[in-house]
Write a structure and sequence with these properties.
two-stranded antiparallel sheet; alpha/beta
């Protein structure tokens, strides 16, 4: 008998590794912003897959200044995001076609790459997906997988949303 979990959640790389965030933006420590999500996923025996970090892999470094959407919205960075989204979407599709469940994909709000619902710009809050996330979502939209945006300052709403999905699967 095969007892392994057949349930998956894809997470942004920085959800488990804060060092992948741009310098100076980590305002909440691991135990308050990361641990609750990881503990919830572990409690429900969920397989966790880290998606690649578009920004650090594009810059070839973990040491980088924060940049806004307008600085990343270039042909080169969009092509990079397209390649990453293509790879991750193939992994998602392969899991689904193999009979596994992809219960959710998590993003990080305010990230120019991984935001799901909103990002702050010099014009205020803009309702949109990040450059990587919009490409990934477009490639798998027919699968109807919930996409949850995490605001690390106010994590309870995202935690409840994720837990509701996990409870009902």
């Amino acid at each position: 008998m095969d007892n392994r979990s057949k349930k998956f959640v894809f997470i942004p790389f920085c959800l488990m590794a804060q060092a992948y965030q741009a310098q100076g933006i980590v305002k909440y420590e691991w135990k308050s912003s990361i641990k609750p999500f990881m503990q919830l996923l572990l409690d429900y025996d969920i397989n966790i897959i880290q998606m690649p970090c578009a920004e650090s892999s594009f810059n070839h470094s973990l040491i980088r200044e924060p940049k806004g959407l307008s600085k990343y919205n270039t042909k080169e960075f969009n092509n990079h995001c397209e390649l990453l989204a293509d790879s991750v979407s193939k992994e998602v599709i392969q899991l689904v076609e193999s009979g596994y469940q992809v219960l959710a994909i998590l993003g990080i709000e305010q990230s120019p790459s991984c935001c799901v619902n909103y990002i702050y710009t010099n014009k205020g809050t803009e309702n949109r997906k990040g450059l990587y996330m919009e490409k990934l979502c477009d490639k798998i939209k027919y699968l109807e997988i919930p996409i949850i945006g995490i605001n690390r300052k106010y994590i309870q709403k995202s935690l409840k949303e994720l837990e509701n999905i996990l409870k009902h699967q």
